[in-house]
Amino acid sequence: MKLKEHINTLIAQALKQASITVDKVSVTEATKPEFGDYQFNGIMPLAKTLRRNPREIAEDVVALIDTTDAISKVEVAGPGFINIWLNPLWVAKRVEEMLQGERVGVEISTNPQEVIVDYSGPNMAKEMHVGHLRSTIIGDTLANLFSFLGDSVVRQNHIGDWGTQFGMLIAYLEEQSVNSMENLKDLEEFYKSAKKRFDESEEFALKARDYVVKIQSGDAHCLRLWQNFIDISLQHCEEVYEKLSVKLTRDDVRAESFYNKRLPQVVSKLQESGALQVSKGAKCVFLEGQETPVIVQKGDGGYLYATTDLASLWYRSEVLDANRVVYVVDARQAEHFKQVFRISKENGLVKESTNLEHIAFGTMMDKGGKPFKTRDGGTVKLINLLDEAVIRAKKSIREPQNHSEEELNTLAKTIGIGAIKYADLSINRESNYIFDWDKMLSLEGNTSLYQQYAYARIMSIFRKYDGEIGSEIIIATPIEHTLSIALLRFEDILLRASKDASPHQITTYLYEVATLFMRFYEQNPILKEEIDEPTKQSRLALALLTSKVIKQGLDILGIEVVDRI
RNA sequence: GCACCCAUAGCUCAGCUGGAUAGAGCAUCGCCCUUCUAAGGCGAGGGUCUUAGGUUCGAAUCCUAAUGGGUGUACCA
C-alpha cells in the first residue's frame, strides 16, 4: 500500500480547493505521537509568497481536508504544522487487505525498468577476500529489491579474468604441470608461489610475459590452460556464493574478457566522435576541467580498465537495453566511474535517458578502526570468515539441547550468515563500517538475530494456537494503531530504498517493526484466557502480518528466517 | 599540489525534500518472569550535532572558510 501517496493526495486536494498551488505535496511521519501519525510541513514556506500568516493558511487548508476516509483528525500546531491522525477503521481495512494479498501489500511496478546490477566482480587470480563482501551482499540485496518491486533485473558479475597476472599464473600452472583441481585448492597459495617464482627467476618472468602475449593473441593451448584456471577459480567463488546464499550464477558472469572484441570498437567510436587525443604515445580522452586524461589505449596498444568499463556500458545500453545501470563498487573508484559515465554519455555509447549510478560503499574496518586484515597483516579469505561466522553463531545459541544436531547446524548457518549480511546492510553504505563479531551476533539491538527472534516468537504463538486466524482487524489500543501503520508503510520503505539504492532503510524499518511488535506482544496479550475471541483473532492476524513483513523484508536482504530458535 | 568523501551521546549508528524539546542500540544504574520464547519489555542519566561565519521565520541538514580523519590523482584493476 502506497500510504504516503494516499495521504499526499488528500492534502493536495485540500490545497487545490484552497486555491493554493504547490509543486509537490509530501507529508512525513510525525516526529512525536502527540503530533499524530503524519505531519505536513509544507505550509510555512508558502507564507512569504502568499503574504499571509502561515497559521491562517494552515487553518484554511485544514478546514478543507477530507476527514471522512483515511484521515480522522487534522490540527494546526505551532507556526503552521498540520498534524494528521489516521482513522483506525480505515487503517484496519488496509491491514486486512494487506494480509489477504500474496505480496504483503506491495504492488508490482506499473512502470518496470530494465535494471542492470553489476556486483561482486572478484578477481580470478586470487580467492575472494573480505574486500568482495560488501559489493556481493549489497548488490545481491539491490537486485532482490528491484525484482521484487517488478523491475526486470539483470545481474552481472564482472569478474577480472584478463590481464598481466594471468600470464604468470598460466606459466606456473604449466611448470607445475597441474591440471587437476586438487593442487589448486588454495588459490591464494598458488598465486603467492607463482609471484615468488616471478620475482626470483628472470627466466620464469620472461616466460610469463610471453604467455600474456600468447593468451591475448589467441593461442589455443594457452587459452585452454587459461580457461581451465578460470573455471577452477570460478568454482571457488561459487562455493562462497553458495555459503552466502547469494543468487549469482554462471549465467550472470560477464567477464572482462567478454568485452575484448568491443575494445577496439570503443577506441574507434571515440575517435569518430573526436574525443580522442594522443598524448605521450597513449590514446586518451581529456575531460574538461581535469588535468589528467582517461587513457583508453596504452602506448603499447594494450587496453585498460576504463576501456573495458566503457565497453560494458556500451553493451549494457545497446544489447541489454538498460534504463538503469547500478555499479556496486568500492567508493575509491568514484572518480573512475564519474569519468567513464561522462565519456559514455558524451560519446553516444549510452543513451541519454539511461541512469548510470555508482553505488559506492566504504571500507570494512576492524574493531580498532583499521582496515580489516589477518593478524599477520594478510587479507582475510571470505570463505574462512563465513565459516567462522557459522561456528560463532552455533556457540551463541542459548539452548542447544532444544535442537537436533542437524537443526543446530542449519540454525547456525542461518544466524551466522544472516548476522554478517545484516551488519553490512544495516549501515549507510557510503560510510566505512566496523566489523565486530560480538555486535553482529548480539541478541540485542538492530541485528538480524533480533528480527529472527521476533519471527520465531510469532511462529511460537501459532504453534500454540491451532485454530483459524481471523480476517478482521480491530484497532483498540495505541500500540495496535502504531504497529498497524508501521506495517502499512512497508511499500513506501521499499520504494524509497529502491530509489536511493539504499538497503539500510529497510533494516531501519524492520527494526522498528520488530520493536513495535515486541511492545505490542508485551502489552496486548493474545492467547490469554481473558481475551475475547474477536480481539484474539485480530491480534493473531496482526502478529501474522508482522511475521510476513519481517520474512519478506529479510528475504530481500537475502536473510533467512527460522521457526524456532 | 589538486580533487572527492567523512565528522551527531563514552562506543556503534539513525536522522527522508531545511521544520516543533536531535533519536536508537551498546555500555552504566533502577524495575518487570508460578503468566503466549526474559535472546524480551519499562524507566533514568548521558549532546556547544568538530569550529567560525553566512542564507532563512526556522539549520545536524544548504553555502563559505578553518581543523581533524580517509581516499583518489597518466599508460595496474
Search tags:
565 residues; alpha/beta; Gyrase A, domain 2; 4-stranded parallel β-sheet; 20 helices; 51% helix; 10% strand; globular; RNA-binding
Unreliable residue stretches: none
Q: Give the terminus-to-terminus CA distance.
A: 31 Å
Strand content: 5-15%
- How large, in whole angstroms, is the Cα Rg? 28 Å
Portion of residues within helices:
40-55%
Count every helix, treating DSSP H or I runs of 4 or more residues as helices: 20
Question: What's the story with the biggest beta sheet?
Answer: 4 strands, antiparallel
Q: Assembly state here?
A: single chain
Strand elements, count: 13
> What is the strand arrangement across the widest sheet?
1-2-4-3
Rounded mean pLDDT is: 93
Structural class: alpha/beta
Basic shape:
globular
Question: What is the element layout, followed by pairings?
Answer:
Layout: H1 3-17, E1 28-29, E2 38-40, H2 46-50, H3 54-64, E3 71-77, E4 81-86, H4 88-100, E5 114-118, H5 133-148, E6 152-156, H6 164-175, H7 187-200, H8 202-216, H9 220-244, H10 262-272, E7 276-279, E8 282-285, E9 294-297, H11 305-318, E10 324-330, H12 334-346, E11 355-361, E12 364-365, H13 382-396, H14 405-425, E13 433-434, H15 437-440, H16 448-464, H17 478-488, H18 490-500, H19 504-523, H20 533-556
Parallel strand pairs: 5-6, 5-10, 10-11, 12-13
Antiparallel strand pairs: 1-2, 2-4, 3-4, 7-8, 8-9
Helix pairs in contact: 1-3, 4-17, 4-20, 6-7, 6-8, 6-9, 7-8, 10-11, 11-12, 13-14, 16-19, 16-20, 17-19, 17-20, 18-19, 19-20
The chain binds one RNA strand of 77 nucleotides through β1, β8, β9, α12 and β13.
